[in-house]
Amino acid sequence: MKTSNLKRLLVGTVSAAAIFASPLAASAQDMPGEGTTVRMAQATWDTGWFEAAIYKQLIEELGYTVEGPTTLDNPPFYQAVAQGDIDLWVNGWFPLHNTYQPTFEGSAEIVGAVAEGGALEGYLVSKAAAEEFGITSLEDFKRDEVKEAFDRDGDGKADMVACPPGWGCEIMIEHHMDAYELRDHVNTIKAGYSASMADAIAAHEAGEPILFYTWTPNWTVNELSPGEDVVWIEVPEVNLPDDMADLADAATREGVAGCVADPCTLGFPANDIVPVANTAFLDENPAVRALLGEASVPLDDIFAQNAAMNDGDDDVEAQAAAWIEENRETVDGWLETARNAS
């Protein structure tokens, strides 16, 4: 090799090494999202906003600008993420949201998990009323004396706090109403969930029997403790929509605190709470993909935040920031993995 060529090669090598060792390059690795905007959504149920705020702030620590989160019902979110109008949310509930998979399959995907397997759903009844009327199942709400006791609006049916239209649980409850032939016996209240539950709790405190659907983690089970104030009741038999038919075994759970039986036939498979993101966005932003794959939030922490929120502390952004700092060592490990992926 000629001396001049060797000199040019050495100069080029030194120059490249200097570039990669420069503060500018280090900064780029620390902030791989700099200059990129992430369009984020969150669910309409406020018990999922804590997780959304945590993930938003973690993404921002990678240098991204996060737009939102925009609050969306399930159908518009899954359509928007499939079309690329929204990049992600962390409020997917599967298998409850299986019904929406045909909408986004092939263009968006589940990546990682906020919380696995601990998200329960089911029906609860005032413990005193369950004992007085011998209520152990939804089937008992076909009995005249039970319907009368739980009829708060005088229409001859038992009133039950259900889910607003567009929620995954609304689809499931509607399926149960038909499967168990309860249309003539139970009136499903589909107004705003938090307001409806606040009304039901007030009725409970006044000594009236109440019937409601809920999920965990949720502030309702902090306000009305299963086994003390209320009890989980069973469904007559497991009956799931076609897209969940292979999950029948998961709809009966052992060790459910406050259930009338053990194992407890809740009628809903346990859910994973998961991020769902547009695939093209993830391919272009490997740091976000890696972060979503690593991060998680313990159910107990979500329970605690939901309880605080119900007690009036509704500064979700501050709660999320405090959680991140309390878990800084773990969080920094997730962020390092994300930066390395970029």
List the keywords.
342 residues, alpha/beta, D-Maltodextrin-Binding Protein, domain 2, 2 domains, five-stranded mixed beta sheet, four-stranded antiparallel beta sheet, 13 strands, 44% helix, 19% strand, elongated, disordered N terminus
Structure, explained:
There is one protein chain. The chain is of the alpha/beta class and 342 residues long. It has 15 helices and 13 strands. It has two domains: 35-118 and 272-341, Periplasmic binding protein-like II (D-Maltodextrin-Binding Protein, domain 2, 3-Layer(aba) Sandwich); 121-269, Glycine betaine-binding periplasmic protein, domain 2 (D-Maltodextrin-Binding Protein, domain 2, 3-Layer(aba) Sandwich). The chain has helices at residues 3-21, 23-30, 49-61, 74-83, 101-104, 127-133, 144-150, 168-179, 193-205, 220-223, 279-284, 286-294, 299-310, 316-326, 328-341, and strands at 37-43, 65-72, 88-94, 108-110, 115-119, 121-126, 158-161, 186-189, 211-215, 230-233, 252-253, 264-265, 271-278. The strands form four sheets. A five-stranded mixed sheet has the order 8-7-9-6-10. The longest helix is centred in the N-terminal third of the chain and has 19 residues, at 3-21.
